[in-house]
Amino acid sequence: MNAPFKPHAGTIRLADLGDVNELRRLDAFVLAHPHGTPFHRPCWFVSVAQATGNRAFALVEERGGEVVGLLPLDAIHSPVFGRVLASSGFAVGGGLLATPGADPAALFRAAKELALRLSCPAIELRGGALPDAGGGWTLKTESHCNFARPLAADDEAELLAIPRKQRAEVRRSLGIDLDVRVGREEGDRAAHYAVFCESYRNLGTPVFPRALLDSVLDGFGADADILTVWHQGRPVAGVLSLYHDGAVMPYWGGGTRDARALRANDRMYYELMLHARRKGCARFDFGRSKTLSGAYHFKRNWGFEPEPLTYAGWTAPGALARDADPTSARVALQIRLWQKLPLAIANRLGPLIARGIG
């Protein structure tokens, strides 16, 4: 699988992801690139593949011995949703990261060749440089939006930056007997995952295996942590966040049924803003949400403006387009059925299914 693809002015090859020096080289390229994201880093796409039993790949373009293009990929198999080559798997970002010396068209051709070799009838590019429509590629615009803004200069300014109605909810949360803890140890992980499991069941979504969250935490090291909100000795809300290029990204979070009345989620995000600023962050990246969804409106209520995203997808000739859209009739029915499952059953079955959602 390490043989070069079709030759052109540069060289495109599959990276050796078992080589520590290769991983460091790719990570350095991502960290130095102005459009690099946590989801381009090997500690993401390699870690999530290993934790879910999938396979990680990286197409690398080199010119004169220098990396000029990187396309991280996870080959994901699901008995429910089929096979897909995603950039990046289990992420809201990724895609092709290229410098002016790269040949994006050649990298996209190599991605299609790789997909066919792996019997993956679909490719999903969740950001980055995008291919032109045609040749099996389709572009989807405005199905999702991202939300990000600068952090304020101090705690009070951060509170005042929140629109009045949402600010009132945060103030109420500050008057409730809630404890906030930040860490990466086993107690933090166990508390967060317990909350995460209940939250996902309530949303009708199969929960990811805990190994996935642990793998990301271990891979990112100091660039990831968990903030948990406790009430009377019980965790009621928690979020696993990533830190990259001066921004904090709350990524895997949720709350129990009690969290709403306790306003624990409001407290959680406000405390994360304060914690991130103290760590030296300048931006709060609230991540993507489906346009006009509940999460979309929730983030707008916090004063974040939506930025429409464009994704690219490819379907092999003669294959059916992959359907993992939660608003489709088939998937929406699955969500409603999942919400009715007892929590213990959802927690047992969820990781088996979620490892293939991607």
UniProtKB/TrEMBL annotation:
Residues 165-300 form the BioF2-like acetyltransferase domain. Pfam families: Acetyltransf_6. This is Peptidoglycan bridge formation protein FemAB. InterPro entries: Acyl_CoA_acyltransferase, BioF2-like_GNAT_dom, PEP-CTERM_FemAB-rel, PG_Glycine_Bridge_Synth. Transmembrane segments: none annotated. PANTHER family: LIPID II:GLYCINE GLYCYLTRANSFERASE.
